[in-house]
C-alpha cells in the first residue's frame, strides 16, 4: 500500500533513529568548534579541511545502493547510527588535526548514510500528501532533541572534559542502535527498489537543485559557527545557548513548514528560502555585531528546513522504484561541491573572512533562479 499513513511501525522506527542521529550530530557540532580551537588548536584553513573531508562520506553515499544488495534499508540505517556513535565517542581522544579528521570521517559516514536511508524510507512509506508532513515532524523531533542535548552540554561544560562528553554522547548512540537492530518495521508490499545507479535526463532539475543546495549549505556548516567562535569569541556556553534558541524555534516551525510545502507547492517554498538565505549570507559578511551574527545563524537554520521541498518535488515526478537509488545519487551530487568548497573557503577565509559568505549569497541567487523551473502540481490534501 503506497505511503500508508497508518504505517506506524516505520514512522516510530524512523523517529527513534532520527532522534539518535540528531543527538550525535548536535553534540558533535556543539563541541567540535571549541574543541578544535581550545584543545586541538586548529586554524581557519585547517578547520576548512576538516569540514571538507567531513563531506567525503556524503560524496560516497552512492555506495549505499551496493550495500543494499546484502542488507535491508532499515537494518543498514541502524548500523549507520552505530558507526556514527563510534565516531562521536572517539573524538575527544584525538587532539590533533589528523585525529579530528579521522573521527570526523567515521562520524560522518554514519550520519550521511543514515540521512540517505531516512529520506528514501520516508518517501517510500508515505504518500505525496503526507511525506512533507512526516519530514516536518521528524525535523521537529530532531530540533527538540537538539534542545535537550544543548541543555545537557551547557550544564556539563563546567565540570566534564571534552573527552568525557564525546564519549557519553557516542555511547548513547551505540546503545540506541542495538535496539534498532532488533526491530523489523519493513513492509514487503512496497514497490521493490532498483539496486543500481539511476541517472535520468528528466531528473535534471532535482540534480541541479541538490548540487546548489549542497554547495550553499556547506558554507554555512563550515563557517557560520566558526565565525561566531573565531571573530565574535562565542564561548562553548554561548554557542550552546544559541543552539537551544535555534531549536526551540525549529521545534515549533518544522511541522508548519512541512504543511506549507504540501499546501503551497515546492516552487513557492523554495523561492522564499533562497531569497531569504541570500540576504542572510550578505548579513554574515557585513555585520560587526555578535548579536546580529547569532540572529543570522538562527534565521539561516530555520530556512534550511525548507530544503525538504527538493525531495518532495522528486517524489512527485519520479518512478517509485527509483527512490532509493536516487536518494543515494542525490546525496552524492549534494556533496560534490561540498567536498571542495569548505577547503577553498578556508583558504579564502585567510585572505578575508567575508569572501566565503559573499560566495554563499551568489550560490543562493543561482538556486533561486533554478527554482523557477519547477513545474509540478501540489499533492492533494489527505
From TrEMBL:
Signal peptide: none
Keyword Hydrolase included in the entry's annotation: no
Keywords: Membrane, Transmembrane, Transmembrane helix
Pfam families, per database record: MFS_1
Gene3D superfamilies: MFS general substrate transporter like domains
A GO molecular-function descriptor: transmembrane transporter activity
Coiled-coil portions: none
Transmembrane regions listed in the UniProt entry: 12-32, 52-69, 76-94, 100-117, 138-160, 166-182, 203-228, 234-257, 269-286, 292-314, 326-349, 355-374
InterPro entries: MFS, MFS_trans_sf
Protein name (record): Major Facilitator Superfamily protein
Organism in which the protein naturally occurs: Desulfacinum infernum DSM 9756
Amino acid at each position: 500500500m503506497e505511503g500508508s499513513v497508518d504505517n506506524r511501525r516505520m514512522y516510530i522506527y524512523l523517529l527513534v533513529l532520527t532522534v539518535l542521529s540528531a543527538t550525535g550530530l548536535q553534540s558533535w557540532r556543539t563541541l567540535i568548534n571549541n574543541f578544535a580551537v581550545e584543545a586541538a588548536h586548529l586554524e581557519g584553513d585547517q578547520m576548512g579541511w576538516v569540514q571538507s573531508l567531513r563531506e567525503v562520506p556524503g560524496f560516497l553515499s552512492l555506495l549505499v545502493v551496493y550495500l543494499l544488495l546484502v542488507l535491508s534499508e532499515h537494518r543498514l540505517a541502524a548500523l549507520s547510527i552505530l558507526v556514527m556513535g563510534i565516531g562521536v565517542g572517539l573524538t575527544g581522544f584525538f587532539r590533533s588535526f589528523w585525529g579530528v579528521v579521522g573521527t570526523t570521517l567515521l562520524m560522518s559516514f554514519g550520519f550521511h548514510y543514515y540521512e540517505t536511508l531516512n529520506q528514501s524510507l520516508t518517501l517510500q512509506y508515505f504518500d505525496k500528501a503526507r511525506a512533507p508532513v512526516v519530514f516536518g515532524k521528524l525535523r521537529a523531533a530532531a530540533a527538540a532533541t537538539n534542545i535537550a542535548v544543548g541543555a545537557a552540554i551547557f550544564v556539563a561544560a563546567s565540570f566534564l572534559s571534552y573527552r568525557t562528553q564525546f564519549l557519553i554522547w557516542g555511547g548513547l548512540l551505540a546503545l540506541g542502535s542495538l535496539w534498532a537492530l532488533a526491530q523489523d518495521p519493513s513492509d514487503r508490499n512496497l514497490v521493490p527498489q532498483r539496486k543500481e545507479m539511476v541517472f535520468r535526463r528528466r531528473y535534471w532539475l532535482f540534480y541541479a537543485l541538490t548540487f546548489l543546495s549542497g554547495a550553499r549549505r556547506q558554507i554555512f556548516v563550515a563557517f557560520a559557527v566558526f565565525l561566531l567562535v573565531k571573530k565574535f569569541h562565542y564561548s562553548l556556553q554561548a554557542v550552546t545557548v544559541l543552539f537551544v534558541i535555534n531549536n526551540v524555534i525549529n521545534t515549533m516551525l518544522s511541522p508548519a513548514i512541512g504543511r506549507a510545502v504540501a499546501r503551497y507547492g515546492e516552487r513557492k517554498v523554495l523561492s522564499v528560502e533562497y531569497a531569504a538565505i541570500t540576504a542572510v549570507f550578505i548579513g554574515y559578511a557585513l555585520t560587526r555585531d555578535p548579536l546580529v551574527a547569532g540572529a543570522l545563524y538562527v534565521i539561516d537554520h530555520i530556512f534550511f528546513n525548507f530544503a525538504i521541498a527538493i525531495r518532495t518535488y522528486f517524489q512527485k515526478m519520479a518512478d517509485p522504484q527509483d527512490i532509493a537509488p536516487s536518494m543515494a545519487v542525490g546525496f552524492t551530487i549534494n556533496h560534490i561541491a561540498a567536498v571542495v568548497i569548505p577547503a577553498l573557503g578556508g583558504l579564502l577565509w585567510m585572505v578575508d573572512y567575508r569572501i566565503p559568505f559573499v560566495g554563499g549569497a551568489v550560490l543562493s541567487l543561482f538556486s533561486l533562479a533554478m527554482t523557477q523551473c519547477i513545474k509540478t502540481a501540489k499533492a492533494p490534501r489527505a
